[in-house]
Structures are given as C-alpha cells and as structure tokens.
Amino acid sequence: MFYMGDGVHVLAKNGTFLFRFDNGEFGSKWCGIWNGDKKYYDYFAFKVNGEFLSAENFVKLDFYNSVFAKHLFRPKTGPVIEETICLDGALLVKLRPEFDCDVSFEAGVNIRDRAEDFIDNKRYNITERDNSIDIGLDGLTAMLAFDTGKFEKREYYGVHSPGAYARNKGYSKHFDDCAVENKYVPGVINAHVRAGEGMNVVLSTKALDKDAIYKTIKNGTQNVRLHASIINALSASYGHVSGVSGEFIEDCMDAMISYANFSMKEIYAGFPFFNQFWLRDALLVLPSFLCINNAVFVKDVLKRIRSAGKGGAFPNLAGGSLFSADVPALFLIAVKEYLDWTHDLDMLRESSTVIKDSVAYGIGLLDGGLIHDSGKLTWMDTLDREYSVELQALWAKAFDCASDMLRLAGRYYDEAKMSSETIKSNMHRYKRLGYVSDQVKLDINSANQLFTVLFETVDENTSRIVLENAEKNLLSEQGVLSVSAKDAIYDPNGYHNGAIWPFLTAVLAGAAFGHGRFDIGRRCLDIITSKNFGVQCKSRINEILEPSGVPRGCPSQAWSIGLLPFVIDRFMLGINVDAAASKVLVRKSIETVDFSRTLNLNRREIRLTMKNGRLSSNAKIVESSDYFTVIV
Predict the structure, then answer these.
(1) Is domain 244-253+262-498 annotated with CATH 1.50.10.10?
(2) Shortest CA distance to 188 belongs to which of 127, 111, 122, 103?
C-alpha cells in the first residue's frame, strides 16, 4: 500500500467524529473532534511523568474500528495504552499506564464552523464544576469531564498551524492549506494514576450532568462491544463471496455505518472535508443500505430528502441553494429500489406527488430529445458541461422507475416512459469511434459513459464498445480515470479531468459484471481492495487518487466504498428483489460466483447459497433458463 507520511483514521458515530493521525498526532486543521460540520476540539494531549505521548514514543495502533482505537505508547518510564471511544456527541479517552505515574491532560478547544480559520479576539466562557469544565462560545459548549485528578485553570489564547505537520509528512494541498487557527487551552487536569487503575476523560460537544458523565464513562466499553456485534451481524449476512475477502466486507460494513447519522436520518459525504448531508452522495449509497438489511434507515433518509424538494428539484447539499440536474433522477431511482425491497405502499402514496413533480422537472430539462444541462450542475461540478452523458443514463432510468411507481400508485403518467424512450433513441448522438462521448457537441472520452451501461441506456453492442474502451483507455492499475489519458482535456493533476475516482471503479465493476465481463469486474474489485482501500485512511477509501496511485482529496469518502455492497449483490451475484411479487431473482451468468447471503424480506429471513452453479435456500426455488426464482 502507498502511504503518504503517516496514516490517518476516523472514529465516527451519528455525526460525531474524531479525525487523527495513526501515531497520535493532530497534525492538520481537520484533525480533532467534530459534531456534524462544527468543530469543538483541535487536539488533546497527555503528559506521563512530564513526557507528552506523541509520535516520538508511539509504538503502534493496536486495534481500530470506526468507534474504537487503541494506541500503544512507550515513554521513558514504561508502556502506556490509550483507548479512544466515539460516542453520540462525545469522545471518551481511557489512559492505562502499566506503572504508577503523574499524568496531566490538556485539550485545545476551537469551536468553529468547518470553513472557518483564524478569528481575532475569539473568547470563551468557562464554568467549573466538580470534575468537569464547560467551555462556551456563541451558544455552543465543549465540556471536559474526568474521573480522577483536579483541574488547574491556566487559560492560554494563541494561534497555531497544525497543517504544517501534514505538509511536512507529504500530504497534499488537498489535505491542508496550513491556515493559521485559533488555539485555546483552558488549563490542565493533573492526576496521580496507579498502575491498572487508569484515567478517563470525556470530551463532549455539549454540556452533560453528573449522571450522564458517569454513564458515559461506565458504558463506553459496552458501546464498543455493541458496535462490534452489529458489524459482525451485518458482515455475517454476506457469509462469503468468492473472490472478496470476509475481512474487507466487514470493514465495508463498518465504514457504511460510520457515515450514517441514524438520529438525524443523514448520510455524510465524507470525513473530514465533506462532513455534511450531500443528497447526491447519500442517494448513490442508499441501495447498499438495503443490501445490508436496513430498509428502515433508507426510508427515513428518503423522507428527509423528499421534504427538501421544491417543484420536483432537490438541492445537492441539504439546506443549500444549488439544485443539481442529477439529484432528482437519483431520488426517483432510490425510491424505486426501496419499493422493490419493501413494497411499502404507504411510502409510495406519500411520495407520489413528489415523484410526479420530479418527472415533470426532468421532462422540463428535455431539449431536442436529450436532457440539457449547462454549467456545473453534475457531479463533475468543477467543469462547465452541456448535455452530460451520465444525465441521460440517470434520467432514462429514473423515468422508467417513475413510470412503474406511478402505475402502481394508480397515477398513470405515460410521459415518463415516453421520455425514457426518447432519451434512449437519441443516445447514438454520443457515439464516437470506439467510445461514447461525455457530451454531444464535444469529443471527450470520460468515465461518465459507464453509467449508460450500468443503467442499460444503450444497446448491447454499444455496451460492449464502452466496456472495451474502459478496459483499454480508462482502467489503470490504480482504478478508473475520470477521463482517458489520451484525451485532449486530460490533466494528471486534474480533479474531474484526470484523477482516479474509486467510486467510478465501482461503477465499472457493476457495469462489467452486469454485462458478462467478469474479468473486468474482478479486476476492479481487486484494485479497490488492494490498491485503494486503506492507502491513506485506515479501512477507508480516498475521494481521489493521482494516476500514479498517490492518495488525494478527502481521505474517507462515503461513495468510494458505499457502492460496493449494491454492486456485489445486484451485478456480481445477480440478486434482484421483488417484494411486491414476494420473490427474489438470482441471475444465471456465464461465470458463477459461489456465495452465501441472508436477506430480510417481508419479515422473513431468506438464506441463499450458491455452489457450483446450483442455488439452495430455506425458501422454495423455481428454476428457469435465465434465473433461479426464490419464493418469499
């Protein structure tokens, strides 16, 4: 794997997250403790017998999952274990020295918005209580609590530039701009700690009473065990998939849960840069939450997104003012996926007006038989584009989905189906010699053509051409390039016009598996698991990589890993759920993948096992030439 300097990791639960270097350093302005898009702490630091626990005496990151990390340090006087546990609204830090020692603890407080840098004359209010300190600013509170020792007030206001550490270690400009930040230290907590007893510190993003502090400390380890049991259960639902390691599937489940805020019904686009509810990103990964048997959460998120709509359009960012051309299409596709899994007619009735409005919005974008966009209204929002090819694929699929849903709701709307057919009949305008162009009027060999295959917007011959072109011109050793290196607009230092996007590698995997190119699909999965996974952030995948494989952009991006359960289920294993007909279809393909899967459908646990091309289940199976049909 390719590490830039030292690796980093994220602990996250329901929107609270800690971002930190694996060696214990807080060497970036993005490092620290956050709740949603608000930061509360820049860092925390222990001194043991006068020596800071730091990169200088770090031994190893002994254990990690998305809510728990265990560090081993070895200062001069002996080994010390530091455990960090992420909880709702707080971080619990447990210090466990293997010897009697004097410990002092300090925290750098910096309550700020995600886009904020240094602000002059920033001042906090402190309220001291027994074993806790409230630090307030503009109605927000960072609270420190501890179970042993005494707080000594030593207020310090200053500035610092933690990003200098990241830059010196080789992290890119994407990672930190070295901006100067406010630094506030309210004082130190001093304690004498006996071997085996330890010290517990709570760094909360809200004020807690004594009882809440006690429960936070007491139940911290229990919460870690609960999280582990949930991840084990989710990964166990996959049993095994030949060619995909069980360890990777387990880490994938862990990652997906880390991006979800189950309390707020949100999915965050990434940590730490994109710790906001981006609707496009959420909609792309929602089908994978269905695959891991969490339809209730999917419904909650869809209802939140539905409420954000205006006249059939949706903002790309919750509460934002930019209404992108692809988000309504993704909403229609995601609602249809949810209904396929649940046959939730109440949800359909509640959503039918918004579905119809979104269809009308999409039809309003049609111009000359294609969806017209102009400017920066797609996921490639740094580029001015027009008649973007992936929009045609998304809207053709969305119109088909909407037609089926409205028919089921008794609200016939033939224009939806007709609009899909209109787009498909005009896709020949994108065809070039050996590829499908990014735009109608420009010759650009981009990865966006992959969506036309994934959503079956083009005929089988064109799909074959797209996949052959992707294999030859887009798929590198590190993943799928956003545009071909032979293309006129290609820039190896570019963002949307040169970088590798792991989520596009997952899209290619799905398109390839779905059209019988298992060689390409397996190569994509191998690249993701061996070349992209964990190269900078522990058990996560970066937003982008340089063509050379150097990790860049957001270190922990949701859609880079969150498409994979859906890609594996739908396209690699060929599983299609039809809850309305009480059946599961499992496609027969030219290459059989052995697997075991457990699905929760219609309040019933359905177990599927494929072995040497034969499917077995705890439910009745009807076999045809193309499918195994499992009767739920």
Answers:
(1) yes
(2) 103
pTM of the model: 0.96
Select from 262, 279, 269, 273 the least CA-distant residue to 325: 279
Query: E-assigned strands of 49-139?
Result: 51-52, 58-65, 68-73, 80-87, 90-97, 101-113, 125-129, 132-137
Domain boundaries, the chain: 8-228, 244-253+262-498, 579-631
Task: Kindly report, residue by residue over 121-138, the tens digit of the pLDDT.
Answer: 999 999 999 999 999 999
CATH class of the domain at 8-228: mainly beta
Whether 292 contacts 256, CB under 8 Å: yes
CA distance 298 to 296: 5
What is the helix, strand, coil percentage profile of the chain, to 5?
35, 30, 35
Report the distance separating Cα 535 and Cα 31, nearest Å.
Answer: 18
Mean pLDDT for all residues in the chain:
95
Residue in the structure block whose two tokens are 């981009």: 446
In CATH, which of 3.30.70, 3.20.20, 2.20.25, 2.20.28 is domain 579-631? 2.20.25
Please enumerate in sequence order all residues whose Cβ is within 8 A of that of 211, keeping only pairs 6 or more positions apart, or say none.
none
Read off φ and ψ for residue 299, nearest 5 degrees.
-60, -45
409-465, pLDDT tens digit by residue? 887 668 999 999 999 999 999 999 999 999 999 999 999 999 999 999 999 999 999
Q: Which amino acid is at 594?
A: D
